[in-house]
Write a structure and sequence with these properties.
The protein has two helices and eight strands, in the order αββββββββα. By secondary structure, the protein is α/β, with parallel strands linked by helices. The protein folds into two domains: about 1-30 and about 135-170; about 35-125, Immunoglobulin-like (Sandwich), CATH 2.60.40. The strands form two sheets. The protein has a five-stranded mixed sheet with strand order 1-7-6-3-4, with no helix packed on it. α1 packs antiparallel against α2 (about 145-170).
Length: about 170
């Protein structure tokens, strides 16, 4: 009987931990990127523009096109924030600046869907928060009600399981 009570306590504790770890795994997962469609021009050319959060063009910004983890092309924006790249192939491409990354699906000439854009638009935000440490609070994940609820449930269930196993011992 003592073993089954101890086993029951362990199951309760592991269940509480499972609820907690599932929420932590979801919180740690990268955000799903919105993917836009862009029609490539002849010779794999693409044009774009880099703006700040207020819509003003950003001059002198380096833009990289990354496909399959490899930098395929780079360009520097002109005074109106515009850039152009050549020799890109169709497929998923990430356009990167020092302050943002946007994902686009590039379509070969005359194969793009009707809703595809003709240019890449990158909006840079000077306030970039990387990772899950939003603003410097290392324990910010405790603000999640599921995490807090899991901790409270574990704080209740574990002592009860231990107390029940101690009652059987006497």
């Amino acid at each position: 009987m003592k073993v089954s009570k101890l086993m029951h306590g362990c199951i309760v504790a592991l269940t509480c931990f499972g609820f907690l770890s599932a929420d932590l795994a979801r919180a740690a997962a990268p955000a799903v990127a919105k993917v836009g469609d862009v029609a490539l021009q002849a010779a794999g050319a693409v044009q774009g523009q880099v703006l700040d959060a207020q819509g003003a063009p950003l001059a002198g910004k380096q833009v990289s096109a990354v496909q399959n983890g490899k930098i395929m092309a780079t360009a520097v924006t002109d005074s109106s924030g515009r850039f152009a790249m050549n020799n890109l192939s169709g497929g998923v491409c990430e356009f990167q600046t020092e302050t943002n990354r946007d994902v686009y699906r590039l379509w070969a000439p005359r194969t793009a869907p009707p809703a595809a854009q003709q240019r890449v638009l990158l909006v840079s935000d000077s306030k970039v928060v990387l990772g899950q440490n939003c603003g410097g609070n290392a324990l910010g994940w405790l603000a999640n009600p599921w995490v807090l609820g899991g901790l409270v449930a574990a704080a209740i269930a574990i002592p009860l399981a231990v107390a029940n196993s101690d009652d059987d011992a006497s």
